[in-house]
Amino acid sequence: MADVKRVERPLSPHLQIYRPQLTSLTSILTRITGNGIIVAVVLAVWWLLAAATSDAYFATANAVVTSWFGDLVFTASLWAVWYHYLAGLRHLYFDAGKGLDVPTAEKLGIACLIGSVVLTVIMIVLVQ
Question: Which of 25, 50, 82, 83 could lock 119 by a disulfide, CB 3.0 to 4.6 Å apart?
Fold first, then answer.
């Protein structure tokens, strides 16, 4: 029998080869923001339950909510809500069978990212 010289190749795309695409990153980010919103909801519910429980417990919860940590969580969740909303509109557009080509999908992904930041900044400026 002849000796067969096998070439060692990876069986699937490895980190040295795989280049993340914008469409996959925006899809993953949609899932992350959906779960991240839960953190703000839990914090807000905790604050409301503390208000209904006692003054001392509310003082503790209010100190956390109005601290830098609370500001960070609620600002990040505001961005997450806007991003998740725009990504949902993008998926509705995809479900209609439109925008499925790669250049359009990438432009819509960039629009979701930029639009969510712009809408978050507008909301922060309007509320304060």
Answer: 82
